[in-house]
Every structure is written in C-alpha cells, then in structure tokens.
Write a structure and sequence with these properties.
The chain is built from eight helices and no strands. The chain is mostly helical and 261 residues long. It has two domains: 1-100; 103-261, no CATH class. Helix 1 (3-31) packs parallel to helix 4 (103-124), helix 4 (103-124) crosses helix 7 (178-216) and helix 7 crosses helix 8. It is globular, with a radius of gyration of 19 Å. Bound molecules: zinc ion. Residues 44, 46-47, 49, 69, 71-72, 74 line the site of zinc ion.
Length: 261
C-alpha cells in the first residue's frame, strides 16, 4: 500500500472517530432535550466534572482512562467509545473504498446521520423527524452537481423508502414506526432508488440475522419493541460498500455519483 493511501485512510479514521464523538454528544443532548450547538462543555454524568480537552480525544482517552471518569472513577458508558470506533471504522473504510472522490462525501453524510439515528433510537426509541428531513436536505444539496437526473434519482429513493416502510407500518400496526419511514426519506434521498432497495433488503436481512437468533434463544420476547433504526442504518452503510458489486453483477449502473469513479 502506498504511503499516501495509508495516510489518507488514517485521516479517514480520525475524521470518522471525531464525527462519531460529536454525533454521540449531539444525539444524547437531543434525547435529553438540551441544546447541543452551544459552547457548553461536556460533563461527567456522575460527578459533574467538566471534561478537559484530553478527555475528549476520541477512542484514545477512553482506552487510556480504561473507560472510567478521571475524578470519580465511575464507568463511562461504552456508547461513547462504540460510537467513536464505529465512526472511525466507517470513515477509514470510506476513504479506502472510494478514495478522495465525490462519493466519499455521500459516505460521510450516511455515516453522520446513520450513527445519529441509531443512537437516538437505541437510547430513547425515537428517530427525530427534523434530523431525517435534514438528511434529505443535505442529500439533495450534495446531488446538485449531478444535475436533474441525480435529483430525480434522490426523489425516487426518498419516495420509495418512505412508501415501503409506511406500508409496513400500516399493515403491521406496530413493530415499525413513522420514525423509521421518515428515516428512509433521508436514506432514499442520499442513496438514489437502486441503493435504497438494497439498503432496505440488507437492513431487513441484518435484523433477521440478529433478531431471530435472539428470539430463538428467548433473550427477547416477540412482543418486545425492537429498535429497527440501527438495522436500517446498517443496511444503508452496507449498501454503500456492496452496491457497486451487486448491481454491477446484475448489469445495472448505479447512476451519479456512485458509478462515476
Ligand atoms: Zn466523574
């Protein structure tokens, strides 16, 4: 591997980890209905100590402190670390897979919003409409350089993603909620219609692979509410990295920006 490539993959990891750290804070503040855009410093949940800049270095500070607050030694929820690590891995994979090309922007938009929706869904059971619509808006902006066909592809993806989940909500009366349908508006706008189909397929496959064994092992009950946002998010991320192969194999072009490198 060339040195430049290694450096850019490392930078992708660092950018992803910082993004993950920021999103974790934003998601938790959103769930707690606190404002998160101010310059208010993060504090330890237990003792209220203000975190120093060192405490905020993603991944490294968690490892150095062995997952504990420096003052009161209480455990820091591993969610912080997991969000940073997931962000780092997706960031590094994105740079490795796309190189410094336009789809990299799409990859990072997905990373940003999929992590956010997963965290709020796990923490509170909510996917926030405002964030779902923000993803759609950002996605259409990112599609502008692709011209009208790219915008139409995004609109078709958004409509398809919404309609598919809405139909399930309507038929199943529970299990999935309108939050999931709204989430797919953003995913569809970003991915375009072909990758939206693949996202849904991979999302449901992932949920089946994880949820069905848990049901069999009786770790969860059929009636337990399962947060499906994280599975839809996993489907979206997986679709980004497998779409070219799968649709290439089927003889379809994915359209701008996915096919243009
Ligand atoms: Zn503390």
């Amino acid at each position: 591997m060339e040195v430049m490539e290694s450096i850019s993959i490392f930078l992708g990891f660092a950018a992803g980890a910082v993004t993950g750290s920021f999103i974790n804070a934003a998601a938790m503040r959103t769930v707690a209905e606190k404002k998160w855009w101010g310059n208010e410093r993060s504090v330890c949940d237990k003792c209220g100590r203000q975190l120093s800049s060192f405490d905020l270095i993603p991944i490294i500070s968690y490892l150095v402190l062995q997952g504990r607050c420096r003052t009161c030694r209480s455990f820091i929820p591993p969610r912080h670390f997991i969000a940073e690590l997931a962000g780092g891995i997706i960031g590094a994979l994105s740079v490795w897979y796309w190189g410094i090309e336009y789809p990299l922007i799409f990859s990072f938009i997905a990373l940003f919003f999929m992590l956010f929706h997963s965290l709020t869904d796990i923490e509170s059971g909510y996917i926030y409409d405002s964030w779902a619509l923000a993803m759609a808006a950002v996605s259409f902006l990112a599609r502008l350089p692709g011209g009208l066909p790219a915008l139409i592809d995004g609109a078709m993806g958004a409509a398809l993603g919404f309609a598919f989940i809405y139909a399930i909500v309507f038929v199943s009366r529970g299990g999935m909620g309108m939050g999931d349908a709204m989430m797919m508006v953003g995913v569809g706008a970003l991915m375009g219609w072909k990758l939206t189909v693949l996202s849904l397929y991979l999302g449901f496959m992932t949920s089946g692979v994880i949820v069905i064994p848990l049901l069999i092992a009786k770790k969860i009950n059929r009636k337990d509410a399962v947060a499906l946002g994280p599975y839809l998010a996993a489907g979206c991320i997986l679709a980004i990295f497998t779409g070219r192969y799968i649709f290439g194999y089927l003889g379809f072009s994915l359209g701008w920006p996915w096919s243009n490198i």
